[in-house]
């Protein structure tokens, strides 16, 4: 990405900067604090969970208010199964609370109309008014900050192309969150990172993976097809390669000073 789209920095970015003087850019630094009991789940559906093929899960599997999982016999799992019980009910309530909290945060950067592929982003809150698309590789550089948090606020759908990659550099994918206004679909062989909390459904196409995160649907189904999902995360040192140069997006965001894109445990924007 070599040019700066005109709509990347809207006229009201100054208003967002002003709001930063009032609202703290802070989230609890642990997934357990953000997600509550939903943190223990790797897949959590509402109406149902369906699976086709040999799927491997690390973490709890559940559904509520539905009480059925199709294709459970071909799932290899490390964790517990909760079908329409009190544990799944509480996890859904906590996931909804996390969704609301994430959606309420003041954005640091507006990405409406941009493809996430090819970007290198630093810790921050990224806003899409409508849909978000990932084609290729998205690099999330935590810059060695153990408190780095990435939040993606997506107004409608999240879609990844086949073989798309979310690569977390110099940090932990545990604190990457995707708040999706309707449904999320991961393309074939996508390698994803972060916890998806979708208002409706999550669909994982054949052999797509979430290697650090969760697939949570608040009102509809999670659909699996020969996937690998784990909520156990390890620190990434560079994703198998060197860190790319920051894109124009990251540089412009820093230059504007909309909000700091790195955070401390209880930091406020300087005004």
Could you explain how this protein is built, in words?
With 271 residues, the chain is of the alpha/beta class. The chain contains four helices and 22 strands. The strands form three sheets. Strands 1, 3, 4, 6, 7, 8, 10, 13, 16, 18, 20 and 22 form a twelve-stranded parallel sheet that branches. Strands 5-2-21-19-17-14-11 form a seven-stranded parallel sheet, with no helix packed on it. The radius of gyration is 18 Å and the shape is globular.
What's the helix and strand layout?
Layout: H1 13-20, H2 31-35, E1 41-45, E2 49-52, E3 55-58, E4 60-63, E5 69-70, E6 75-78, E7 81-83, H3 86-104, E8 109-110, E9 120-122, E10 124-128, E11 132-134, E12 137-141, E13 150-154, E14 158-160, E15 165-169, E16 176-180, E17 184-186, E18 191-198, E19 202-204, E20 209-217, E21 222-225, E22 228-230, H4 248-256
Parallel strand pairs: 1-4, 1-20, 2-5, 2-21, 3-6, 3-22, 4-7, 8-10, 9-12, 10-13, 11-14, 12-15, 13-16, 14-17, 16-18, 17-19, 18-20, 19-21, 20-22
Structural class: alpha/beta
Low-confidence stretches: 1-25, 236-271
Strand content: 25-35%
Overall tally of structural domains: 1
What characterizes the major β-sheet?
12 strands, parallel
Q: What's the SSE pattern?
A: HHEEEEEEEHEEEEEEEEEEEEEEEH
Q: Tell me the radius of gyration.
A: 18 Å
Helical content class? 10-25%
Overall mean confidence score, pLDDT = 82
Q: What is the end-to-end distance?
A: 31 Å
**Number of helical segments with 4 or more residues:** 4
Q: What overall geometry do the principal axes of the alpha carbons give?
A: globular
Annotation, overall tally of beta strands:
22
């Amino acid at each position: 990405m070599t040019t700066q789209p005109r709509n990347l920095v809207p006229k009201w970015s100054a208003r967002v900067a002003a709001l930063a003087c009032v609202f703290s850019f802070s989230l609890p630094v642990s997934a357990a604090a953000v997600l509550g009991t939903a943190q223990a789940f790797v897949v959590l559906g509402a109406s149902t969970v369906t699976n086709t093929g040999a799927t491997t899960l690390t973490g709890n599997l559940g559904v509520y208010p539905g009480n059925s999982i199709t294709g459970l016999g071909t799932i290899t799992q490390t964790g517990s199964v909760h079908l329409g019980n009190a544990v799944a009910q509480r996890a859904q309530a906590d996931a909804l609370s996390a969704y609301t909290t994430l959606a309420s945060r003041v954005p640091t950067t507006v990405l409406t109309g941009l493809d996430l592929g090819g970007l290198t982003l630093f810790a921050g809150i990224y806003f899409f008014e409508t849909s978000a698309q990932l084609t290729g590789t998205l690099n999330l550089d935590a810059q060695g900050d153990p408190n780095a948090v990435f939040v993606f606020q997506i107004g409608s759908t999240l879609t990844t192309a086949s073989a798309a990659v979310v690569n977390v550099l110099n940090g932990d994918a545990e604190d990457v969150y995707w708040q999706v206004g309707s449904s999320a679909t991961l393309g074939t062989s996508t390698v994803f990172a972060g916890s998806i909390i979708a208002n409706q459904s999550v669909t994982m196409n054949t052999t797509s993976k979430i290697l650090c995160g969760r697939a949570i649907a608040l009102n509809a189904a999670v659909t699996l097809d020969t996937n690998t999902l784990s909520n156990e995360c390890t620190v990434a040192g560079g994703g198998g390669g060197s860190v790319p140069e920051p894109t124009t997006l990251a540089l412009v965001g820093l230059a504007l000073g909309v909000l700091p894109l790195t955070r401390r445990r209880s930091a406020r924007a300087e005004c």
